[in-house]
Each structure stands twice: as C-alpha cells, then as structure tokens.
Amino acid sequence: MSDVVIELRGVSKAFGEKVVLDDVGLSVVRGEVLVILGGSGSGKSVTLRHMNGLTRPDTGEVFVDGVEISHLAEEELVDVRKKVGMLFQMGALFDSMTVFENVAFALWEHTQMTDAEVAGRVAEVLGFVNLEPDVMPLLPSSLSGGMKKRVSLARTIALKPAVLLYDEPTTGLDPVTAMTINRLIVDLNTRLATTSVVVTHDIASALFVADRIAFLEEGRFVFVGSPGEARRSEVTALRAFLGAQESRAPQETAAT
Ligand SMILES: Nc1ncnc2c1ncn2[C@@H]1O[C@H](COP(=O)(O)OP(=O)(O)OP(=O)(O)O)[C@@H](O)[C@H]1O
Ligand SMILES: [Mg+2]
User: Fold this and answer.
1) Is the model's pLDDT at 256 over the cut of 50?
2) pLDDT in the model for residue 145
3) Cα–Cα dist 21/37, whole Å
4) Distance between CA atoms of 73 and 143, rounded to whole angstroms?
5) Which ligand is nearest to the CA of 88?
6) How much of the chain, in percent, has pLDDT values that exceed 70?
7) For ligand 1, atom 16: residue with the closest CA
8) What is the DSSP letter of 137?
9) Which of 12, 44, 220 has most ligand 1 atoms within 8 Å of CB, for mutation?
10) Which CATH number applies to 4-248?
11) R_g over Cα of the chain
C-alpha cells in the first residue's frame, strides 16, 4: 500500500470567471490528520469535494488509492464515496428520522446487513462518538449542536470508510463543545485506523488536530507542513492568518 491515499495533481477549477483552484497539487498521507486552512471563500470546501468526486476538476487529476477518479461515472463514484466518507459543513441529518434511522440509513442503502446486524452496528458507532444508546429514538430537533455533529459523524463512520473528510466540523459550536469534537477527530483517526482531512478556518482547532497543515491562498497551497512549521513560517499570508486569530489560539512559548 502506498503512503499516499489521496492525491490532487495539477487540479484547476473555476466557476464562471472565478478561478478557485489554480494548478493545485496536494497529497494526503495514509494515517495522518491533514488540515486544510484558509479564509472564507478560499476554496477549502471545493478542494475537499474533489477528494470524493463530488466536484470534478476542469483540468488535472485526482487519485484515490492510486485510482484516478475524476473521469469515473457517477455509479463508480458510489464505491469511492464509501471509501472516502464525508462529514458535511451543515451536518445534514434527516429531520423526520430518528437518530437510529439516520445512522442506519446508509447501512440499509449500501449493505446487505440484517436488521440485527444494522442495530448492532448503529449501537457500535454511536459508542465510537460517545453517544448513549438512549439517544436512538430521538429526533435531530431535540439534540444540541454538538450531539448532531456526533450523529452525523456516526452516520459517516458506519460504512467503515478508510478516509474521513470533515468540512468545518466545529463551526457554530461553543469552544468547549468544539474541543470535544476536536478530541473525537484525533481519537477516531487512531482507533479506526483512518486518514482524515479536516477543513477549517479555526486556527485553534487546526493546531490541535493536525499532523500537517495545508494553507490555501488565492487558489494555491502556499504552505504545507507541521503545526510547528506553520507557526514559524515566513509565508506572509499564513503569518497574517495566524496573527489575525492569535488571541484565540493556544500560545506556544517563543518560536524556536
Ligand atoms: N457550485 C458552485 N458554483 C459556483 N461557485 C461556487 C460553487 N462552489 C463554490 N463556489 C465558489 O468557489 C469559491 C470557493 O468556495 P468554497 O466553498 O470552497 O470556499 P471555502 O473556503 O470552503 O469557504 P467557507 O470558509 O466560507 O466555507 C467561492 O467563491 C464560492 O462562491
Ligand atoms: Mg467551506
């Protein structure tokens, strides 16, 4: 198995006149938590959506486990999306379904599991995200924001993806709840032996969860490196980005 699980090679993407990604290259290394950092509208979500074929590049290639996916037919992408699970920016639970049904849905749709096996798997993945079985009959409307994120995450991991894509997993959560989600991201990546790509503009979250940070600015990754290297980086845009949020970030003693 290659060390690189997902690779974007020379990817460009424009919407109308607006060039969002300009000849982008990025590799996701097996087992890591890679954070994609950048300002609002910089193209973080668009980058993430290339990784499971939700968006196709105008030019360039996207490899998942060595397979080029940008030319695959929609039905072939179903298998890619089982392998590369995504937690969407807005969570998107089905409001009229219970927690149990929300998590079971993907299993009913995509597997031949029996009802008993589905019930077992739902209980198991709810456990992985630290939710008690008594949430199963509840509707999403009765859950807190943090619990909804956990249910969305349980639904995503139910199909045992090899890669987890998170789009703004802590947005809209209070700092304490956000930190429990950050811990969960790191914990799940280890316990499930997955690879994770986390899109965020929250620097505290990025520094906490990342093995590596890729910083997106004007359609390109202008920095890729460890959190320590990010803090010491001379890249002007990254320095400005980190500096602007400095008061919210956990401080390290003077950069070495
Ligand atoms: N389907 C689309 N059609 C047209 N424009 C789009 C589409 N998807 C994204 N864009 C544009 O591409 C740019 C990058 O969008 P993207 O959603 O990737 O930003 P982002 O970095 O995720 O921002 P945010 O932090 O606000 O979520 C934006 O200008 C957005 O309006
Ligand atoms: Mg986004």
Assistant:
1) no
2) 87
3) 14
4) 37
5) 2
6) 94
7) 43
8) T
9) 44
10) 3.40.50.300
11) 18
Is the pLDDT assigned to residue 253 strictly greater than 60? no
CA–CA separation, 155 vs 135, rounded Å?
14
49 in Cβ contact with 88 (< 8 Å): no
Ligand 1, atom 5: nearest CA belongs to which residue?
Answer: 15
Ligand 1: centre distance to CA 251 (Å): 31
Res 230 pLDDT > 50: yes
Angle at Cα 150 formed by Cα 148 and Cα 153, nearest 5°? 110
Residue whose token pair is 């298998």: 79
Considering every ligand atom shown, identify the ligand nearest to the alpha carbon of residue 47 and give its number: 1
| pLDDT tens digits, one per residue of 67-88 | 999 999 999 999 999 999 999 7
Task: Report how far residue 77's alpha carbon sits from residue 54's, in angstroms, rounded to the nearest whole number.
Answer: 9
Angle subtended at Cα 199 by Cα 17 and Cα 173, rounded to the nearest 5 degrees: 120
Q: What atom in ligand 1 is closest to the CA of residue 46? A: 18
User: Residues 21, 43: contact at Cβ < 8 Å?
Assistant: yes
pLDDT of 227 > 90? The answer is yes
Q: Which residues form the pocket of ligand 1, taking CB atoms under 6 Å from any ligand atom?
A: 15, 18, 20, 38, 40-46, 201
Atom 9, ligand 1: residue with shortest CA distance = 46
Give the pLDDT mean for 171-197: 93
